[in-house]
Every structure is written in C-alpha cells, then in structure tokens.
What we know:
alpha+beta, globular, 5-stranded antiparallel beta sheet, single chain, 5 strands
Amino acid sequence: MVAEQFTITFLFKADAGRLVVPLDADVEQHRSLKFYSVKNFRPQGSDGPGILPEVRIRKSSGRWVHVDSEKETDLSEAIGAAIDLFNSQGT
Length: 91
C-alpha cells in the first residue's frame, strides 16, 4: 500500500564525483513493506521522460540500500539523503 507520494530534488555524483547531475524524481513510500519506490528520474526542472529505471530503496542500519541487493550505491545514498531531508521538513 502506498502511504505517501512526493517529489525530491538531489545531486547525483557520477564518475567518482567528476560529473554532478541535478535530478528530480518521484517517490512513493510503501509503509507496510517499509521501502520507497523511486521513479521518473529526470533532469532538474524538466518535465521530460525518465532517464533512469525505477529503484526501490530502504533504510537499513542507518544506510540507504537497494531492496533487491541490500547494498548501498552512490545513487541510493543520494536519493536517501533527499528523502531524509524531505521527511525532516515535516511536509
């Protein structure tokens, strides 16, 4: 069951930080299963089509990991930081 939907903006650092890409993405929180579906990644401020596939992440021991692999990546950490920021703003 989807509990909440919102949009995040974050900086994705690729190529060991040499390439920084500002992105927007749509997030759906699944409270019963305790994970977030993140989709429709697009350049910040764009209404264009998504540029990355959907990912599912969750917080585990203070780290943001992919649900399928239970491993963290630069992408999961960047998304997770944006989700934490959104949640801390109380919106």
